[in-house]
């Protein structure tokens, strides 16, 4: 069964890249079944209004609950016998990681992405739907985007490339499962000398043991320099291992 993705947004055209490249291939190969919806299709006024000012005052606008309620009622009940997981991208969520991507790719068969805009969605929408469906709020990282659409593109790409049956992912999946929490080593191709920059000698040696040792050193050095947070976790983990 393909992984079904529904995306609800006020900017459906933002999701056009879902037809491109890896995601397009996954769709064509029948691994992904993507449905993009315009939230305004569930409004009933002439201006197709989706937002209003916040109770209690403050800057910006809040997305009204009614269009979200009607949209999610309809979409989430559109496949008899199946229950989706709702995914709400937002800076206040659990950080989306490779581990989360892999869990979504391997354990879920239907994701409904809820793209908020403005200052956010009326909190009662979460209360209502979290009581009826599994719901995850997921953040790309500690910065603020204007809405969830770009996050949906990032998340769906990370998930799609891990889908079982995605051509070409077998070898890279094996490699990723062995990354062991470190950053990747640097890679080189021909020519061996370019603008005075040389490919490290060891990679030309043909000595597989020395090459593997060099790559592991590079991974440790890079991780220590660029991601001390990952390094700390890696060191704690290797102490725990026998
Ligand atoms: N929407 C706004 N900011 C976001 C973030 N950092 N991650 C996911 N969705 C968002």
Describe this structure in words.
This protein has two domains: 3-170, Alpha/beta knot; 181-240, Trp Operon Repressor, Chain A (Orthogonal Bundle). The chain contains nine helices and nine strands. The protein has helices spanning 21-28, 65-76, 98-107, 123-130, 149-160, 169-177, 201-204, 208-226, 228-240; strands at residues 3-9, 32-38, 51-52, 62-63, 85-95, 110-114, 135-139, 193-194, 197-198. The strands form three sheets. A five-stranded parallel beta sheet has the order 2-1-6-5-7, sandwiched between helices. Strands 3-4 form a two-stranded antiparallel ribbon. A hairpin with a 2-residue loop joins strand 8 and strand 9 (197-198). Helix 2 runs parallel beside helix 4 (123-130), helix 3 crosses helix 5 and helix 8 (208-226) crosses helix 9 (228-240). The chain is elongated. The protein starts with a strand and ends with a helix. Bound molecules: adenine. The site of adenine has 11 residues, from strand 5. Its main location: cytoplasm. S-adenosyl-L-methionine binds at residues 116, 140-145.
